[in-house]
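Task card 7
Instruction: Convert sequence to structure tokens.
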Amino acid sequence: MKVTGIRTFLCDVYRTNWVVLKIMTDDGIYGVGEATLEHRELAVEAAVRELERYLIGKDPHGIERFWADNHRDAYWRGGPVLTTALSGVEMALWDIKGKALGVPVYQLLGGKVRERVPCYANAWFAGARSPKEFAAKAMETAKLGFKGLKWDPFGSAYLNLTAQEFSIAIDCVAAVREAVGRDMLLLIEGHGRFNVPTAVRVGLALEPFDITWFEEPLPPGDLDGLAEVKRRINIPIAAGERLYTRWDFKELIDRKAADYLQPDLSHCGGILEIRKIAAMGECNFLPLCPHNPIGAITNAATLQIAACTPNFHLLETMSNDVPYRHLLTTEQIDFADGLMGIPDRPGLGIDINEEELAKHPYQPHDLRHYNGDLTQIRPEGAGGWFGGPSEGGRA
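Output:
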């Protein structure tokens, strides 16, 4: 079997564009992957095409060699563009291997350690602005059975918080906690927005609300500062969505800067890379909770990791999405009681609908985090995209 080419597809999904790719082979088997890099989709699409010449005529089963050679030969190693491109291509190669052997990817990585994985919700807050609105949406989402709710209550703040911004944020957390009770995990997202003293102040103020973790309180890159925040507050720290490859995570772990590891399968280097990161975490008794807010193919691939990784703890899940999500792929989700089932279909267990992807061509989108539109994460008409097995994964 030899690789004959790569095709890429950019599909507008309101807040970003999915970057989907398809690797073809000479015997008709193909694999799909996802290399979505929010707000830099054109750059990563070009990087995927740069990788194509390293694959043409090669055996797609040589995944480890492909990754090692391309990481080495890039010279400018690491970073979001290269590792996102590598992640998407590597994902598709695993899909080919699983299909060729007739087994799901998790079987190639040691087999299942669990049948289902607990999920927390993101995007549940779409459109909310006041503590009262967040509380109402939290109650609605809790009825769907999610184990936790994650959100950023800090508006458009950067580095510092005014007294008013601080008060509104803490009032928002208090309102959500009162609305959903003590049995719901609450995960507070920082989006890398604070300096050390502000992060410490926020962390101390969150303590009464039994917060599961404070995520990415500092801008990425200052691991010493992150370790300092972790030392000075009594809430666990989660981090890693903007770290790339096992070498970045080695530094995070060595400096004891996080309690929960959050590599993003679409960005960290791919399936083998996230397994290596997970193994380093396991050696340090750190749970793996991948960052997973993007597309259907990444979600499918992350479920393969959840199946076979002992220290996999929680799966991030977008509780709602664009109304046409279910048309873009063959995604079928088994979700019940806050748990998502692991599919047993060969490869990644998902395929793309090229015609539907083409109906939503690339549109540029800007980051919303600091302009006051943080919660405008979904369009009018967005809704649930998952359901039980009897519903065929539709809701």
